[in-house]
Amino acid sequence: MFFESTDVPGDGLHRQGGWVGRRLRRLSVSVVVLIVIVSGILLSQTTAAPRDAGDAVAAELDQEYMRGIVERITGIGSSPLGFRTAGTPEDKATAQYVVDRMKQIGLADVAIEKVPVDMWRFLGASLTVRSRGQTWTFPAASQGGVPPTPKTGLTGDVVYVGEGTAIEYEALEAAGVSVDGKLVLANWDSDDVWTNHIAMEAIARGALGTIIAALPDVGDYYQAPNAIGSFDSVCDPVLCGSFITISKEDAQTIIDLLATGATVRGTMKLSVEIKENVDGYNTIGYIRGSTYPDQIILFNGHHDAWFQSAIDCTSCVAGVLAIAKAVKESGYQPARTLVFMTSTGEEWGVEDTYYDWLIGSYYRIMSTHPEWQGKAVGLINIEGSGFAGDPLQVNVNQDFRPFLMNMLGRFKDLTPYGAQVFETYSWNELWTYNAAGVPGFTFSSSGDTYGRTIYHTNLDTIDKIDFRYLRQTVEFAVRTFVELDRGDLLPYDFSRRVSNLGDHLDYRTMGDLGMSASTIDSLGDAFDRLADASAAYNSIRGKVPPEALAEVHAHVREAVRSSLTSFTGLDVWDRTIYPHEQLETDAVHLGEAIQELGAGRWKSGLRELEWWVAQSWYIPRMSYVPFTEEMDHHDASKADGTVHLGGAKAMTWGGQGHLAPYWNLWQVYRAIRDKAMAGDTDFGEEIAFLMDVREAAIGLYAERLAGMASAMDTVATHLEFAVAAAS
Question: What pLDDT, on the 0 to 100 scale, is given for residue 45?
Fold first, then answer.
């Protein structure tokens, strides 16, 4: 049995932390449907070939070979704690090791492909505190992009600031506590803010530097004993200043000292090398296809890492290489060309950029190999795997989802802890491939328990991998690719896309937002046409004559590409949505806020803004300058290729996501709050401002709906051509 996550249409955004949500500080309410698969009920969607076509390859998967790969790569690091980050000597050494293994396996055209990145090379960090005649020195780490301290460190009294948001600082200031010239210790609640928000707020309040931990009361990460964590910082290097991370136990020692009334004096040190615009290193090798060599199946795992990262993601590299080795040693002759890759910069790769992760894969699909956007028929992306007890988690785009459910039913023995299926989300490399038009899967057997405890910590070491379970996950990837490879037509199924899309087109709300009847009718007509074309294609999929296969494939593959590039959007919390949905949410709740404020109900009016409109959640939690910089980092017009205040260096893959504007409502929100606290409920000026924003959102919403209708017509056209070609 396994769990399938099913989105609820119109569910909005609700805050959630944890592993699956990861950066999704607000995640849609999900209905988790328990599905019991009875062997034999789900039938294979491919044509005449034995059910055990993948047995020969699976038999050659070498568990000990994977162990050896993990042992070797986890020994490469820029510090005693590890760290293999993009553009560093460790990145290059890892890439060279991988291509050497690819050559040993016998792959063709093995190469290192360079990627333009910024380098953040971690060398070490520590925190020394002194209180009441005693001294403690705690190990520490930091996050990608954070600037170093001076060699002598930053020294000052330590002040505990709770969760480190503007709310806590305002309370401290009201109590007469200043952090000016001091070090602040903050308890990171990822449901509320990211670490860069804590660091920027500290610097805005005059602090010298920031110390961050995740205590058990709010911590979604780093909860294993003595875990020290890292992440990408999405940091503005000027406004963030320097910050370090320490374990929850060491943070509690400091908090306990402060609770006694003692003065705690601290020195934080962070040693990193930072260089802009250097080379990072992707790797690649090929096995040429015999029947359809121009159709490509991709395999990927990222080789950059925080700490040693045995699971995330050295296990992925081991899996990719083990599959390549098994294919060669089994004698399997693929019909389609197989491309084996490892990538850099998945964790971090660009300074002063919000979308600072997925860099190696983004560059590969958009710049190094843009031809794959139409030629690659599927991506097998392996993420952190082999954590016993956690289920297999699969990210998949809609068009492959029915096929995936079939595979999970057939190979239940490879998922001993169950399986969970999710829409593609932006914390793994499948997302940027999907947004470029390449369908696929991410397989990861490290879930909630791993995510809460050792994910991105010093404790993600080789002893945490269950290599038998890792092998099972890799075998599932093998079974999936062989099933894709052995059919004459790929098992693309648009019925799931039609169903999902139908759930996310809210015609009543369109009318409420003033969309014309002709706009709504054209959208409905396009949807009906797509549904009919999908049904027609499904009816002929198993009946395509050999002479029509090439033409049918070309049209269907283009339908997939158009569907993915047109429908893969991002909401303000980095969740995958349709391109019109964030604007719809903004417009609806701006309207609710205006109505509440007009009636003098200012608290509920502000709640509508805070909880639902763009990233207004951060307004009570951030000062104006940090908040404005955060919003500017999502504005493509302000990304100029340099590290600067007032925008990002680059948009990277965020530019693929059909972003809605990140409305900056900080001043109007604060004006409403300040007026109300002073007893003034005349919000006419503020309501007028919000009405202008809502009008702008509705105008963009209308454009997005027109784009959705056009995209549905385009996809339907290609499916209709495919049906005609098969007739």
Answer: 36
Do residues 336 and 469 both lie within one domain? Answer: yes
553 with 564, same domain: the answer is yes
Strand pairing report for 292-302 and 243-245: unpaired
| Contacts with 601 (C-beta within 8 Å, 6 or more apart), sequence order | none
- Long-range CB pairs of 433-436 (<8 Å, 24+ gap) are 433/298, 433/361, 433/365, 433/376, 433/379, 433/381, 434/397, 434/564, 434/568, 435/564, 435/565, 435/568, 435/653, 435/656, 435/657, 436/365, 436/366, 436/372, 436/373, 436/564, 436/565, 436/656
Low-confidence ranges of the chain (pLDDT < 50): 1-4, 6-50
498 membership: H or E segment, kind and range: helix 495-503
Q: Is 722 left (phi over 0), alpha (psi -120 to 50) or beta?
A: alpha
Q: CB-side exposure of 563: number of CA atoms within 13 Å? A: 29
Question: What is the CB-side half-sphere exposure of residue 595 using CA atoms within 13 A?
Answer: 7
Q: What is the pLDDT of residue 307?
A: 98
> What percentage of the chain's residues is helix, strand, coil (to nearest 5)?
45, 20, 35
Q: Which residues of 637-674 are buried (b: 16+ CB within 10 A; e: fewer)?
A: eebeeebeeebbbbbbbbebbbbbbbbbbbebbeebee
Residue 379 · residue 298 · CB < 8 Å: yes
- What do you get for the CA distance between the two ends of the chain, in Å? 39
Cα–Cα distance measured from residue 385 to residue 644, given in angstroms and rounded to the nearest whole number: 38
Q: Choose the final residue of a domain: 459, 486, 513.
A: 486
* pLDDT for residue 219: 86
pTM of the model: 0.93
Predicted local distance difference test score (pLDDT) of residue 8: 29
CA dist list (Å): 616 to 26, 510, 663, 672, 699 = 12, 23, 8, 14, 20
Q: 389 and 265 in one domain? A: no
Given the structure tokens 């709504």, which residue do they identify?
A: 520
Please report whether residue 4 resides in a domain. no
Tell me if the bond preceding 313 is cis, omega within 30° of 0: yes
Helix (H) or strand (E) segment spanning residue 14: strand 14-15
Q: Alpha-carbon distance 335 to 293, whole Å?
A: 7
In terms of residue numbers, what domain contains 574? 492-727
The count of structural domains within the chain is: 3
CATH for 178: 3.50.30.30
Q: What is the pLDDT of residue 318?
A: 98
CB 435, CB 564: distance < 8 Å: yes
Helix (H, G, I), strand (E, B), or coil: what is residue 3? strand
C-alpha gyration radius of the chain:
26
* C-alpha to C-alpha distances, 351 to 146, 156, 470, 651, 686, nearest whole angstrom: 9, 28, 34, 11, 36
**pLDDT of amino acid 10:** 33
Amino acid letter for position 434: N
For 280, the 3-state DSSP assignment is strand
Residues 114 and 147 in one domain: no
Tens of pLDDT along 208-267?
A: 999 999 999 998 999 999 999 999 999 888 899 999 999 999 999 999 999 999 999 999
Q: How far is CA 695 from CA 600, 684, 689, in A?
A: 22, 16, 10
Rounded to the nearest 10°, the torsion over CA 531, 534, 540, 545 is 140
Q: What is the pLDDT of residues 136-154, one digit of tens each?
A: 999 999 999 999 999 999 9
Element housing 377 (H / E): strand 376-382
Residues whose CB falls within 8 Å of the CB of residue 588, separated by 6 or more in sequence, listed in order:
509, 512, 513, 612
Count of CA atoms in the C-beta half-sphere (13 A) of 78: 26
What is the pLDDT at residue 238?
86
| Shared-domain flag, residues 221 and 115 | no
349 φ, ψ to 5°? Answer: -160, 0
Check residue 53 and give its pLDDT. 78
